[in-house]
Design goal:
The complex is a heterodimer of chains A (241) and B (849).
Chain A (H helix, E strand, L loop, with lengths): L2 E10 L6 E11 L4 E5 L6 H8 L7 E6 L2 E2 L5 H11 E4 L11 H12 L5 H11 L14 H14 L4 E5 L7 H18 L3 E4 L3 H4 L4 E6 L2 E5 L12 H7 L1
Parallel strand pairs in A: 3-8, 3-9, 6-7, 7-8
Antiparallel strand pairs in A: 1-2, 1-4, 4-5, 9-10
Helix pairs in contact in A: 3-5, 4-5, 5-6
Chain B lengths: L1 H9 L2 H39 L5 E5 L13 E2 H8 L4 E7 L1 E2 L3 E2 L13 E5 L9 E5 L7 E5 H7 L6 E5 L5 E10 L10 E5 L1 H7 L5 E2 L1 E6 L5 H12 L3 E5 H48 L1 H9 L4 H40 L13 H27 L17 H27 L3 H42 L1 H10 L3 H39 L4 E5 L8 H8 L4 E13 L6 E7 L1 H7 L3 E4 L12 E5 H7 L6 E5 L5 E11 L8 E4 H8 L6 E6 L5 H15 L3 E5 H44 L1 H9 L4 H36 L10 H28 L2 H6 L2
Parallel strand pairs in B: 6-11, 8-10, 17-22, 19-21
Antiparallel strand pairs in B: 1-13, 1-14, 2-12, 3-13, 4-6, 5-9, 7-10, 8-11, 9-10, 15-23, 15-24, 16-17, 16-23, 18-21, 19-22, 20-21
Classes of the chains: A alpha/beta (241), B alpha+beta (849).
Pfam family, one (chain A): ABC_tran
EC number (chain A): 3.6.3.-
Organism (chain A): Paraconexibacter sp. AEG42_29
Amino acid sequence: MIVSATDVTRRYGTGEATVDALRGVSVAFPPGQFTAIMGPSGSGKSTLMHILAGLDRPTEGSVVIDGTEIVGLDDAALTQLRRDKLGFIFQSFNLLPVLTAEENILLPLSIAGRKPDKAWVDTLIATVGLGDRLTHRPAELSGGQQQRVAVARALASRPAVVFADEPTGNLDSKTSDEVLQLLRRSVDEFGQTIVMVTHDPESAKIADRLLVLSDGLLAEDSAGVAPTPAAGAAPTADAGA
Amino acid sequence: MRKVALRGLLARKTRLALTALAVALGVTLISGTYVFTDTINRSFDQIFTVSFSKTDVVVSPDDDLGGDDGTTIPLTSDLLRKIRAVDGVDVAEGSISDINGVVLGKDDKPVSSGAPMFIASLQGRVFEALTVADGRLPTAAGEVALDKGTADREGFDLGDRIAVQGKAPKQEFKLVGTTTIAGAESLGGAAFATMTLSEAQRMTGKAGRFDLISIAADDGVDPAALTARLRQVTGPGINVRTGSQQADSASSDIRGGLSILTTALLAFAGISLFVGAFIIFNTFSITVAQRAREFALLRTLGATRRQVLRSVVGEGLTIGVLGSLAGLLLGVLVAKGLKALFSALGIDLPSNGTVLLSRTIIVSLVVGTVVTVLSCIAPALRATRVPPVAALREGVAMPETRSSRLAFPLAVALTGLGVALLVLGLFVVSGSTAALSLTGGGAGAVFLGVALLSPRLVGPLAGVVGAPLQRAFGLTGRLARENSVRQPGRTATTAAALMVGVALVCFASIFAAGAKQTIAEAVDNGLRGQLILQNQAGFGAFTAEAGEAVAKEPGVAVVSPLRGGQTRVDGVQGKQRIVGIDPATFERVYRVQIREGGAEAIRSLKPGQALVSQDYADDNGVGVGDELNVQNPRRETLKWQVTGIVKDKGGLVGPLVVPNAVLADEFSVTNDQLTFVELDQGVDAAAVKQRIDALFSRDFPQAEARTAEQFKSDQRDQINQLLGLIYALLALSVIVSLFGIVNTLVLSITERTRELGMLRAIGTSRKQVKQMIRLEAVITALIGGILGLVLGVGLAVLVTRAIDDFSLSFPVATLVAVLIASGVAGVLAAIMPARRAARLDVLEALAYE
């Protein structure tokens, strides 16, 4: 398992205002799997992802990423972990406006002070299809192009797992589809592990596995329990493209 | 709407505090200066009122045209006799109060190095203003009383032997008492050695003469009427005043002296406020831009433009009032600090209590508030131009205004105007007040112009500064550089605030270096003698007997004294300096060029003749053979024939040069200002100097002998001391500009919260975030530093051009240090913002809108 969470609970606030965002969730993600997490607002899906990614701390429970227990790590160790093992894709792209597309893609490597692997970078750029726009700044790119840059950025450091938080939330359906296909290809071609939070059932169909959260509990898991109609298999998604 | 403005302020306490502080510091100096000088003035007023409270009429020489040694027309015993005979005079007494004294401490060194030391006599029975603090007043020869301040400072006890030197050589007196006046133990750190009249006259070389005659009128005689009768006997050049007039006149002399200090301190307060204005303008520009959507929302809810304007200006008004109030209160504390500073420099100014005049309160509050409100008007106007529809849009950019389109031509015009004013003030207009205001205004306009131009310079400069940082720090350097040019206007204004302080520091350091160089060259070129005798304080006159005694030492070939006085010349504006020389020996000790009048012009200079400097001749169209009508202190006109024109690169000699005898006879100047000594050839100079040192220590502690090298280094030290004071005052405006950097960074970080969240999420460490912020601050500070350096150098070159024979010299090490210090200042300014940025919670930052 690349990522596994055991009995994770997350409580916000104290006293009367206490909110239990997660009430004991255990889930594991094998390598090379594309998982979608769904659930209504307030179901805890974002909280789960934040905790899995080490951005938030569980009140109780354990999270292991690539063999490392991350609960209790200090900021420096978590930073190092995010740098080495994780990739992020955000709803609002979050590219640095002062850097070119290529520089944005290479940003995680620059931060880590690592030399980019030329062949890998070329492959990535070819895959996201931005060869002619590499010297443009984000302001000169469309939303879809920006998110493709963000995907490439997330993959650049060959992370153990990529977390995508509503990656298509700010995109129209056509560009959404392009970005989802890109994620799909990274799983199929590079064996990338991806965990994606989305509220859009169409987007979720592209995943291998669907988790549904409700009231802080895991309500459905297409890998563990009986398959549900919501869990689209890869071939289906390909067919839809 | 008022609520909106107030809520807006309270929501941003750090920014409020920093912005208010930008105003407060300038106001602090205003209020501090006023409180400080008002307190001193009132103390002196009290002292003078008490001093002359028992005197109906005071007769004193007019000091308009005095000598460098403070001498004026002597009041003779003959005059005293005549005064006593005037109808209505009950008692008249003469007294001595001579500034050319030296009192030695237990360590055999003068008790003061800056403040004057007086030899004074008792004022005479009925007039005595001194209060005995301890012991009694002197009654016999060989007795002295000291002011309590000096006695305490030096640890003297009654019965101790006190060495005093005046015109006459050093002599010991027995301390019989300590005195206060009007409750003050010390008058500005000055020392007062009070003796009987005859002793004071003997010590000051004023046998049969007085510095002051105090008069008590007969009962029922109006002092004012008496003054009119007394004027009949005193003649011109001598003031006859009632006691209260004399006190007022003495007070206004003090005020006049202090007004230079007041003006100088207020100028620095002005600089600091000028810098503060940049900060306020910038802070408001940024916050208005950040709140564009809020304003748009208010507009959609029906707020008028006027209401939006009022809400922003109201915010400025609140900050201005709060900042000014804080400054006013801080100023009272600073006044105490200033007093301590001057005490440390040996100038112990009297200050009884604290004087807070309503003028101080009004000026502080009005100036601080007006500066703040004016600085926020442009941003406030921009806020009104946000269209209501902007409320519905994502990422609103502020609409470009007419003023920003006009910024470039305006900047060029303003810079040009500034340079023009500078040139006008420096080279064209004469008359110091007009020239000074033109120069100051010109410098201000240049600063503003360059500040307006600087948004265009920020890009290239950030490149120059950022490139090495990028090479050294990699990604963080790269991002810092990119961030600093994202909003060039913002960075430019922030940097411009620092630029002002840096420019003035550079200007002062270049000017000082030039002054040192000029003096050194003058000494090297002009001095032919081996030793220079001067007052041990480094300035002021000293007794001529010192030089006369040196002349008797074996190994000394020539002793040639220089003296100084002031006069007015018919047809020439202002007072002119006269330098007295000994024509026979002058050329053996000092070299000046004789431009006209022949090789013998100096040697053959006689009473009734004068040499003029080349500059004086040029300015006033005077040539050899012309006659000058010159006034002496008695208001008599003397006729001097110009017999030569000289050029002294050292500026020591001129504009008018006459024999010392003329200064002595017509201007009563008998003390030396500088005395040059030439030694016999082949003599052991060090041994001779040692003998002279011993002689001075025994008889004339007022004087000291310096070699050329020592003299130069003395001058350097004096300039450095002044420079240190200027740096300290400029530090205030630099501190204000650092607040500006902090403010801009904090606001920029707020804007980039989400970016920072993303950077942290993808693996940027807290250290890297801090470094990025720090480097951005360093780049901003260095842009300010570079602009300031260039401006400072430019100003210095321009200003020194206007001074004749000024050698320009660049203190490269200092200038480099200033640049490095700007960078370090950036690091300091970044401490708080960097910590804030690094502590951001990643999740919250990512969710920030």
